[in-house]
Amino acid sequence: MQAPLLSMRGMKKRFSDVPALVDGSLELDRGEIHALCGGNGAGKSTLLNILMGFIQPDEGEIFINDTRARFANAKEALDAGVAIVQQELSAVPDLTVAENIFLGAEPQRHGFVDFRRLNHEAGELLKSLGYDIDPTETMKHLSIASQQLVEVAKALSHRNADILIFDEPTSAIGEKDTARLFKVLRDLASAGKGIIFVTHRIGEIFEVASRYTVLKDGARVAAGNIADITPEQLIEKMVGTTVDQEFVKQNWPGTAPLLEVRDLTCAPHFEAVSFTLHEGEVLGIYGLVGSGRTETLAAIYGLRQAETGSVSVQGRVLKGSGAGEALDAGIAYVTEDRKRNGLVLCAPVGDNLSLSVLSRAQKWGLLDSGRENAYIDKAVRRMRIHPPNARQLVRHLSGGNQQKVVLGRCLLTDPKILLLDEPTRGVDVAAKKEIYHLIADFVQGGGGVIIVSSELEEILGVSDRILIFSRGRVAAVFSRKDATQKKLLMAAV
Amino acid sequence: MRLETIALAKRYGIVLVFVVLCLLVSAVCQYKVIRGEWPENTFTTPDNFLLILYQVSINGILAIGMTIVIISGGIDLSVGSVLAFAGMLAASFATGSAGVTPWSGTYGIALPVLSALLAGAACGALNGWVISRFRIQAFIATLGMLLAARGFTMSLTEGNPISSLNPALRWFGTGRLFKVPVPIVILLIVFGCAWVLLNKTVFGRHVYAVGGNENSARTSGIKTNRVKIWVYVSSGFLAGLAGIVLTAKTGSAQTNAGSSYELDAIAAAVIGGSSMSGGVGTVSGTLFGALIMGVMNNGLDILGVESFYQSIIKGVLIVAAVILDASQRQADD
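ok -> structure tokens follow
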């Protein structure tokens, strides 16, 4: 039998006494797409960071083509053929596409960068991948999806890269680009590369991967062929117990309007957007990236000034003067990117939770820590934040728990309307389920939810009604019983 | 156990550095006494420690204002110039020699003090307004104020100093309250107020949030522009206060007073653990940062170290403090 392309055995790593990896193992063959699965905090990132030479393991061995390898830094790993397509976009926004692709490996001539060769080679590379991207375009002018594709090209620009890591490459791009990316993945695999694919979307694993490895609590708990397993079984292995992905649906939307949006316009992002959210209703918004969904939510919340149109809560028209007014009117907003505009990462969990209700925890002009802690305890318990330690810094939490902190902060304001923008992105299966439960509880109490999501299953599962955004307009509205994946996709293009 | 030690060291490390520094200087002094080179140990005396606090008071007041600004994610380069402007204004209302400015004369104590505080706060408000309204980097906006306020100071008296001050005003620099020099009392009051402001008020928590992540703060319903303006008002107000104390201490207002004081204030805040990227810092850390700088100045003077070596040592210390901070943050991630 041929030796595997990559073999990691018994990897151990502790971070200041906290074990992140106790028995991390992974075997990767040439020509396969290997799904690396596990909830948040299962040790995936640690294992991959070791493979990329970012951190050193305490114990364990790495073999590449049966040769023992040890990477002291990222460059050594790259030289050995390990390349990554980052989850978080790592591009330099003010450089061109070509400069980004060859960052750190610019072709040179007499000690200067050879821009002609740089642009030419980048162009060839992009063309060979079937991407319609101009190599001389400045990175920041590209859409998020295109930027992600440039990241792929960048990883492939290392010609000897045999092992390619795709860490949640689809989390920021729409369905169409995902399909294109998967084609690239399959092409790469058939060209003999080994691909490690990390995603939180179970459906994608079954669509594109051929084998899987499941990590749980820092150890490999299962591995095998995708063909031999069902999605339910895989999820079970990841979380340990059976989790039905069924969405809880017990609410009966009322008829009393809660939020009315009339002719809201903010060119070029969205135009003449009108809809009504009722008591007890979950309103889904589906659309491709760049269709104006996020901008619309921001305008409803007052973070973005609309040119014309009105937003009213229970008949009272908002002036659009800012988040403070929206919060007072009973609107809370969970933003798309929790790290960039949801959390204060360098602050403790408690400070983040109480941020919007501090003025309610005052006594004689000073903060009353008793009252504040009561708020914090309530949120930590209600959201089941793990670890339940309010003094822990938020940036040390897993993605799912960070998202629960954002939601917790919003719910503490006792809102009537929740705006959720991609609330389950980068969140593990168990936390996802908890978030769905919270949505269900919230609408049962008479509140209204607007949820924006790029995941069709999610939007179909939770929504009572679905608005389709296309090019900044509401292109279609579907009721729960009429909506199908196909109809939604057709309307969104 | 080990984790607790690290957390403890992080929290009180600055105090430890301060104590070690004091012991070190005092040991060298004691050694010289034993060797018979010196008649007595002039460093380790109660009077000298009071002197250090007295010397530190101006920088301490400025550094506390600077800390609030740095926590909010900004910087205030104008405090030295604003200090001079406020000091000159105060002096012009409290001088025996008429005619330096059209209005100069002696007007009691309230007018000079209030005018200085108001002028400082107004300069700060202008800084904050420009920064938040036009979304200009604080570095640039306050650099502009640094130049402008210095220019205003000189234009007040056409470049001349103001002396022969009203003794009532001089009390703020040379007087004593319960045997403690007034500048020290003022520093401690400022410290107490700033501590309460940052730790016990909604505004203080908003300052940390705005510095930690302005977008998140805005989404959470915080009026970030208003927070920023008040942050610079505080810093300007304290610069005005420091201007009164300095003028009162020296007995005259000089046009070049307070030059490059902003750098010492930044140094104290940074040595005290404030992060230039915002969201992190404490006033108690800053107080010890200022004290460490004071002990170094005082101790090295006593030991007869030339001022240019002192400058080198301070430079190394500031960078070392930031390296320590950065390495701790890396260990965190």
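Chain B has a mean pLDDT of 89.
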